[in-house]
């Protein structure tokens, strides 16, 4: 099952377009945004190539303009989930037996469709329904999604090429079979690329999928479905359902043919799913693969040798890009007293320069948080910080949901390194800073490591190489993606495989061959050319 004589196109990271004033891409995406804003879509379930409309609908609205409707989506009943499972199982045999290069060609075509005719549409959909500014949409919905599709094909061929040694008397080979059953993909609101990659990566390796996108990402998920259809993904390979997440998950996990889950979302939900899988383990035909990327309480630590302006920029970008709604967003920072005055000055100046509003205005760096539930949670923590002794809001602290779910980028200065917002995942534009004594560098590293149950991303800033090496060692278990002199966000496919451990997930590294290995079940085949005809070994004598 090796690559043979086929040479796949070399995977190269998709260049990021600038969208600077006057550029063609800026005008195209703005025109597409306006057209989609003024249109109303009706999003059906997508099962076995059939569009199913149940009549039980939900409304899709821009977070920055929540009184406006972009359209509706249809919610599944249990019978539809069972139909999706049955369809995936029926499609599996033909799809699994399709030559690998045929599957690869489909997803390479999808990448080119995104790079070309669908680029403005998938970016505009992400801007509208997930409230990303154009740069955040471009690096996610276009570039990262394209990179996932292209690099996954390259990773697949690397896996298939990995074959065991053989001898003159026997030929040994590995067959990388898809899992026996179907894969369940649950995807989040915050990255369109993740929403597309989780079902696509499993499907590329020959699996069939039941995919449940987040209710807050269905608008751009519909664009992904259109792209996959045009690229030639066969009916039944990726089936898309929306609705009650508990009902959908319980129905999926009750199936004896459930073979794996590809998940990105909250830690609590993932742990509940893991527990349900354990409860049902005796019903399954195989041990399910459980792959998940969950929460984070990501950090920035500055050494006294760090450059204050660089630290402030790392905080401004790491904490507030996409309103702090990246799994990797910085939400706690540790700054030495000797640097704090300068870091505070530069950070406040940056925040003061931020513009906030609709992503249609490309001068806006900050837009809205995803929905009212997120808004209310963040407002509650901000209000608590205003009342608590030992916590001071030094920037931001305002919020308004009259038109959109807008939270000002907020910086809390905490006297206690274990203050609640130093420990609790907030998933919004709020960062808490603790100022430590310069002579307590080692103690601070221990504090960073022991404060959070999570271990997703983290960054240290230092011009002292010994300190950088010390932090890299001391924080080896605190972050699956670790950054030196950079913000803790922005992992690039093929360059920084992404994933964390502890309560942040199974660390199966999306954007690398490691993730794809979870979606195959290898079979070893040994073929002997001259088969023995006598059981006796020489040690037995005559």
TrEMBL record:
Name assigned to this protein: L-glutamate gamma-semialdehyde dehydrogenase
Keywords, comma-separated and alphabetical: NAD, Oxidoreductase, Proline metabolism
Keyword NAD: yes
GO molecular function: L-glutamate gamma-semialdehyde dehydrogenase activity; proline dehydrogenase activity
One example of a Gene Ontology biological process annotation: L-proline catabolic process to L-glutamate
Domain of life: Bacteria
Family the UniProt entry places it in: Belongs to the aldehyde dehydrogenase family.
The keyword Hydrolase is annotated on this UniProt entry: no
InterPro entries, per the entry: Ald_DH/histidinol_DH, Ald_DH_C, Ald_DH_CS_CYS, Ald_DH_N, Aldehyde_DH_dom, P5CDH/ALDH4A1, Proline_metab_enzyme
Coiled-coil regions listed in the entry: none
EC number(s) given by UniProt: 1.2.1.88
Gene Ontology CC annotation, any one: cytoplasmic side of plasma membrane
A Pfam family this chain is assigned to: Aldedh
Reactions performed catalytically: L-glutamate 5-semialdehyde + NAD(+) + H2O = L-glutamate + NADH + 2 H(+)
Pathway: Amino-acid degradation; L-proline degradation into L-glutamate; L-glutamate from L-proline: step 2/2
SUPFAM superfamilies: ALDH-like
Entry-linked CDD domains: ALDH_F4-17_P5CDH
């Amino acid at each position: 099952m090796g690559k043979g004589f086929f040479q796949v196109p070399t995977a190269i990271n998709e260049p990021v377009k600038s969208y600077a004033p006057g550029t063609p891409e800026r005008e195209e995406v703005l025109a597409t945004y306006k057209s989609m804003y003024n249109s109303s879509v009706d999003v059906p379930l997508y099962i076995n190539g059939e569009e199913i409309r149940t009549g039980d609908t939900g409304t899709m609205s821009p977070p920055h303009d929540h009184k406006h409707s972009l359209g509706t989506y249809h919610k599944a009943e249990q019978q539809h989930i069972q139909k999706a499972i049955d369809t995936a199982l029926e499609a599996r045999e033909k799809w699994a037996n399709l030559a690998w290069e045929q599957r690869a060609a489909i997803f390479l075509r999808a990448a080119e469709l995104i790079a070309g005719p669908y680029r403005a549409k998938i970016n505009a959909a992400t801007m509208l329904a997930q409230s990303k500014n154009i740069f955040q949409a471009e690096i996610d919905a276009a570039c990262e999604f394209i990179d996932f599709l292209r690099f996954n094909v390259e990773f697949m061929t690397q896996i298939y090429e990995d074959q065991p040694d053989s001898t003159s008397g026997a030929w040994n080979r590995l067959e990388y079979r898809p899992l026996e059953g179907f894969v369940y993909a649950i995807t989040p609101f915050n990255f369109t690329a993740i929403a597309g990659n989780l079902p696509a990566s499993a499907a590329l390796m020959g699996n069939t999928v039941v995919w449940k996108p987040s209710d807050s990402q269905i608008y751009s998920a519909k664009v992904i479905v259109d792209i996959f259809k045009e690229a030639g993904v066969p009916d039944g390979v990726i089936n898309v359902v929306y609705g009650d997440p508990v009902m959908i998950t319980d129905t999926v996990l009750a199936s004896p043919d459930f073979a794996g889950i590809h998940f990105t979302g909250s830690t609590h939900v993932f742990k509940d799913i893991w527990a349900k899988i354990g409860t049902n383990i005796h019903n399954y035909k195989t041990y399910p693969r459980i792959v998940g990327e969950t929460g984070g309480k990501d950090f920035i630590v500055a050494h006294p040798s760090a450059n204050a302006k660089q630290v402030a920029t790392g905080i401004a970008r790491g904490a507030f890009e996409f309103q702090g709604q990246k799994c990797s967003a910085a939400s706690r920072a540790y700054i030495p007293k000797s640097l704090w005055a300068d870091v505070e000055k530069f950070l406040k100046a940056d925040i003061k320069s931020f513009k906030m509003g609709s992503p249609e205005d490309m001068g806006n760096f900050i837009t809205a948080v995803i929905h009212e539930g997120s808004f209310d949670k963040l407002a509650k923590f901000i209000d608590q910080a205003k009342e608590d002794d030992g916590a001071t809001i030094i920037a931001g602290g305002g919020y308004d949901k009259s038109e959109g779910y807008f939270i000002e980028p907020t910086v809390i200065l905490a006297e206690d390194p274990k203050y609640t917002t130093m420990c609790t995942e907030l998933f919004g534009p709020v960062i808490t800073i603790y100022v430590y004594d310069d002579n307590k560098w080692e103690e601070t590293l221990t504090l960073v490591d022991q404060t959070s149950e999570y271990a997703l991303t983290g960054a240290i800033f230092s011009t002292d190489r010994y300190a950088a090496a010390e932090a890299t060692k001391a924080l080896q278990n605190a972050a699956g993606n670790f950054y030196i002199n950079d913000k803790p966000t922005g992992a690039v496919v093929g360059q920084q495989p992404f994933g964390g451990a502890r309560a942040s997930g199974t660390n199966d590294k999306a954007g690398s061959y490691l993730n794809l290995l979870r979606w195959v079940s290898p079979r070893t085949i040994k073929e002997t050319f001259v088969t023995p005809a006598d059981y006796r070994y020489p040690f037995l004598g005559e």
